[in-house]
Amino acid sequence: MDMANLTLRNGAYFVRYIVPKDRWRDVGTALGSSTGIRRDVLKSLQTREYKTALRLRDAALEAIRRMVNGKLADAGYAPLHGCDVPDWMKPENLIADALDARREIQNASERADDDFDDNLQGPSDPRRRMMDGMDLMLEDRTEKLNAAGKDGGKYYRQFREIALGESTPFSAILDRWMKERASTASHSLLSLDRATLNHFSRYLAHSQDLPEPEDLMSFLRSQIVEDVPKRVLGEFAEWLMDEQHLSAKTAANRITPLKVMWDFAIKKHILEGPNPWQGATAGLKRKAGKQPVTLRPYTASELIRLFEVDPNKAKRWAWGPAIRDMMRLSLFTGARQNELASLTVGRILNRDGAEGPLWGIQVTNDVAKTRNAVRRIPLHPLVQPIIARRLSAADASNPDALLFPDCKPGGPGMKHGYYFAKRFPDFRKAVLGDASNDVVDFHSFRRSFITYFELANANGAAACTEIMRDRLVGHESKSMAGNTYAARDLGWDLYSRAILGMVDKGIPDEVKEAV
Question: Do 151 and 285 have their domain in common?
Fold first, then answer.
């Protein structure tokens, strides 16, 4: 257990001298480290008793420092200087040290040792002995803090409450939750998590009448969960809408990651239930639901007007060539704008024709919105020349070369579709007029793809089934059989027949001619 430079290994105590970071290489060279650096030096104290180890600690640390200085002098380096303020006395280390103690205490057995000597004073179970040792350490630190003119009592209370699980800093949750999220969530979800945590940190500072922290995540990590009143949590949504001017739907999306994080902490026994965010988004969703959803697919006449715009004229709007190509690709693949804007040379499939005549695009995990969005989509011959032209302009030898380098990344997740999403509305409004506002957007090409897919199915395209639609657009199948038992990839031949059938029996001829 690392407390006050003491480490317990195999039942015996060691003293741990921590080398200053800027001297790791000097000390590593002087001591002949195989890696060239040395972060610390361990020395056995030859005792299993915490009180004895505590008594021997300071002299052992000084002996190690003298030994290291001697080696440094022999190697021609400057000596290490004594530290007036030990690392544990630095405020930023309190939480980390207390959490280390908490983990050690939780992992210690509550069962009495089989070989415990009843004649010895003290508790018979390892956990109780560890807690007693921590209290002795805290008493020692308290005296030193008070002697240095600091509030030793406050340090004692905070350390002990965290170590015994009576209070929980957000860092105890964030470290574990964010590690798990990084292995399961998409990049877009992780960027939403970060946006939520930044808003929540800003809000906690506001609720305490503090200025906005320079480092929002560091501030949040240092806050104590139990110190945040339930009332403050309950007013977060109002603050998001009233002070940050977010819509009810966006406010609900900001709260959802907090609910997920609390569920994780309760499941891992970091926090006690119930989850205070349970049901917090219900009212927001009802409020957002009152706003009529008017977005729809494009009509055939609207698609023709968009497709017939001269690409040279489109240059008077920023990103004209990218807009021209991505509109067509989205209609014929159902891909989202960021999935297209992020396309690279390596994500163009089947150029050798091994699986059939159609090329394809690959949506990979790093750009997929959800797990289901990772997929392969064949390219219809009508839009394959767009990709061929983009490939010829790219560095074909580099699989990471972008096909749409004009789509510069931006926003919280540095998405390639970020600025594109801001430019397309200018183009759409210029072509279709103000009447298209709040009625259609770039996502309406995806809506049109799904609409034409359904029409093709009704018109007899055998491959255009519900499960094929879900696989191609990256949706979770509504049927348990399709979602749980069917293969994730149903085969290139079937996907190709679905795309060909969708275009042949779903998309109107006049739209295909405009393409």
Answer: no
Same domain, 408 and 433: yes
Phi, psi for residue 213 in degrees, rounded to 5: -65, 145
Would residue 319 be called left, alpha or beta, if left means φ above 0 and alpha means ψ between -120 and 50 degrees?
Answer: left
Q: Is the pLDDT of residue 63 over 80?
A: yes
Measuring CA to CA, which residue among 390, 322, 405 is closest to residue 359? 390
Q: Tokens representing 165? A: 């699980």
- Do 125 and 113 form a contact (C-beta atoms < 8 A)? yes
Claim to verify: residue 265 and residue 390 sit in the same structural domain: no
Going by C-alpha positions, the residue among 41, 45, 87 that lies closest to residue 67 is 41
Tens of pLDDT, residue by residue over 453-467, are 999 999 999 999 999
pLDDT digits (tens, 9 = 90+) for 356-401: 999 999 999 888 877 788 899 999 999 999 999 999 999 988 999 9
Indicate whether this model's pTM tops 0.70: no
Domain closes at, from 269, 289, 309: 289
Among the candidates 113, 132, 163, a domain finishes at 163
Indicate whether 294 belongs to any domain. Answer: no
User: Please, which residues have CB within 8 angstroms of residue 468's CB and are 6 or more apart in sequence?
Assistant: 490, 494, 495, 498
Residue 329: closest CA among 366, 403, 380, 390: 380
With helix as H, strand as E and coil as C, how does 46-58 read? CCCCHHHHHHHHH
Q: What average pLDDT score do residues 226-237 get? A: 88
Domain membership of residue 1 (yes or no) is no
Other beta carbons within 10 angstroms of residue 121's beta carbon come to: 5
Helix %, strand %, coil % for the chain, to 5?
Answer: 55, 5, 35
Q: Which domain holds residue 21?
A: 6-163
pLDDT tens readout for residues 337-363 = 999 999 999 999 999 999 999 999 999
Instruction: Decide: 426 and 315 in contact? Cβ < 8 Å.
Output: no
Structurally, the chain folds into a number of domains equal to 3
